[in-house]
Amino acid sequence: MTAQARPSAESTASSLDAHVQNEVRNHIGHLTLNRPTGLNALTLDMVRSLQGHLDAWAVDPQIHAVVLRGAGEKGFCAGGDIRSLYESFKSNDTLHQDFFVEEYALDLCIHHYPKPILALMDGFTLGGGMGLAQGADLRVVTERSRLAMPETAIGYFPDVGGSYFLPRIPGELGIYLGVSGVQIQAADALYCGLADWYLDSSKLATLNEQLDTLAWSQYPLKNLQGLLAKLGVQQLANPPLAALRPAIDHFFALADLPSMIEQLRRVTVADSHAWALKTADLLQSRSPLAMAVTLAMLRRGRHLSLEDCFAMELHLDRQWFEHGDLIEGVRALLIDKDKQPKWNPATLQALDPGRVEQFFEGL
């Protein structure tokens, strides 16, 4: 049975919804992140708006599924609005504390949502954008997709459930992605299990049209999967990470970061030496503290439940603004833009392993 498009019960404009558009068509709740000039980076108001719509639609028998997308062609969501969190901390406000509590609750809600969620990861999908998408039942990438957990570049660690979904990627690929913060494209996203379907961006309009006329059965997820199967594929040829997998599995299984960097420079595995040298240089530009905490967090997360992973990340968050490298990273890259962060400590060799372990005390 196909219903006609109808206005959403929640479509009344408010300041809370200014950057989240919502519409209901053919029993589907559509949510669009609408800050395209900021690559749809999340504010606390946006988190609250998304949560409100999802809560309402979860118990609405007229809603069979949810589609989550970003406005514009450049990004699904480039993460959290980190500048506002920096300013909150600097002004002794509480926004930077409240944001993570509510963002993680939203991400966890998506993981457990009772109706299928389709996330269109078209364009940049970074940090908080990954948090929104990774709990969705159907994760779609296009040729424009750029996925990453880039937090160590700003002196932070991969959160929003990253401690759960990264270490569950086969081998050491997730450890590599989390510690280095590198971006991957569609073929690697599918290879790593961070996406389910590839659609060329030229087919997104067709997808939208066919969602409006989709005939629903008692199995909405199967209905959506059938539609995607007509438009997309679940594998792409020659994902770059497949060729690098032997090297990544070797280097990123080593005991600690100094060992990884030393071997990346000195040991050749499977014709990957150029990549290894580039990776070593990249790691030496990242925050030593953030990388070390990330490595410890991801290895712990391998053995924790989803809920416990979010609890671990929140435990780290509550200490990080005061004792981590995030404030300096944001200053150097977003505020002063000198791109010369003064990490504390400046090198991995100067990092006391006990300082890393302190962040996990009391879990």
| C-alpha Rg (nearest Å) | 21 Å
CATH structural architecture of the largest domain: Alpha-Beta Complex
Can you tell me the CATH superfamily of the largest domain?
2-enoyl-CoA Hydratase, Chain A, domain 1
Query: Which topology of the largest domain does CATH recognise?
Result: 2-enoyl-CoA Hydratase, Chain A, domain 1
**Biggest β-sheet: strands ordered side by side in the sheet:** 1-2-3-5-7-9
Structural notes for this entry:
This protein has 363 residues and is an alpha/beta fold. The protein has two domains: 169 residues, Alpha-Beta Complex (2-enoyl-CoA Hydratase, Chain A, domain 1), CATH 3.90.226; 119 residues, no CATH class. The protein has 16 helices and nine strands. Strands 1-2-3-5-7-9 form a six-stranded mixed β-sheet, sandwiched between helices. Strands 4-6-8 form a three-stranded parallel β-sheet, with helices on one face. Strand 2, helix 1 and strand 3 form a beta-alpha-beta unit.
In short:
The protein is built from 16 helices and nine strands. 46% of the residues are buried. The protein is of the alpha/beta class and 363 residues long.
Features:
three-stranded parallel sheet; 9 strands; 2 domains; 363 residues; six-stranded mixed sheet; alpha/beta; 10% strand
